[in-house]
Amino acid sequence: ISVDAQAKQSHYSKAAQLASAVEMFEKAGELYLKALKVTPDDAELMEQLSSIYRLTEAWEELVELLETRSNLLETEEAIGVLLEAAHVASENMEAPSRALAICRLVLDRDAANRDALLIMTDILSTQGKQQEYLDALEGLAEISQGDEQLEILWKLKDLAVEMDDQEAAIAYVQRILDSDPGNVRALEQKIELLKNSENLYNLVSTY
Q1: Is residue 206 pLDDT above 80, yes or no?
Q2: Distance, C-alpha 77 to centroid of its chain
Q3: Rounded Cα distance, 162 and 192, in Å
Q4: Confidence label for 205 from pLDDT (cuts 50, 70 and 90)
Q5: Is 197 exposed, middle or buried (0-12, 13-18, 19+ CB in 10 A)?
Q6: Cα dihedral 127/136/91/84 (nearest 10)
Q7: pLDDT tens across 80-134, in order?
Q8: Stretch 164-181: mean pLDDT, rounded?
Q9: Inter-axis angle of helices 146-162 and 166-179, to 10 degrees?
Q10: CA 18 to CA 53: how far, in whole Å?
Q11: Lowest CB count within 10 Å: 108, 168, 186, 199, which one?
Q12: pTM for the full model?
């Protein structure tokens, strides 16, 4: 960065800080943007501008900035920034498709990221995208344990029934029984599913 550019960036940054100090947040945002045009990869400036966007509830701009900033960070930090962007897109912007796309970026970096999978399952449960919902639940089941895992497996069973996939539904109930052999509800469900699938051999073997 040249001396002139550095001076210009410093000028805009200081002016932005002054504007923020007197609660002229929109003006501060404009000045931080001008500073970023001089030094586009300045992570500190991005963080300061992010704070302004949160204060002014400029959610679309915040999400875009967080996505840009994530590309400048190491994996762990980038994931944290992207998860914030996903939360904002889902809760503040009410833009589920955008939130899902951001969660996929997280999963590209960490395929077993619990927070991303939780956001995805929450969104997909109301989207009617059954296969995507099932895939997200499967990912969550793999990293869960105990009662939480059993609850997810029940959701997977119900979803498989909705998708008219009796074999998958039976498999999910069996996974519940593998974890909790004395689960009466699971055994009853398995018997009912086997009756519906007319799998008499496996039905008899359950008794």
Answers
A1: no
A2: 15
A3: 15
A4: low
A5: middle
A6: -150
A7: 999 999 999 999 999 999 999 999 999 999 999 999 999 999 999 998 899 999 9
A8: 94
A9: 170
A10: 16
A11: 108
A12: 0.84
C-alpha to C-alpha distances, 69 to 46, 53, 62, 63, 85, nearest whole angstrom: 7, 14, 10, 10, 11
Digit-coded pLDDT (tens) for 24-80:
999 999 999 999 999 898 988 999 999 999 999 999 999 999 999 999 999 999 999
**Local structure of residue 163 (DSSP, 8 states):** T
- The per-residue pLDDT of the chain, averaged, comes to 91
Triad 30, 35, 39: Cα angle to 5°: 145
- What does the buried/exposed string (b/e) look like for 48-78 if buried means 16 or more CB atoms within 10 Å of the residue's CB? bbbbbbeeeebbebbbebbbebbeeeeeeeb
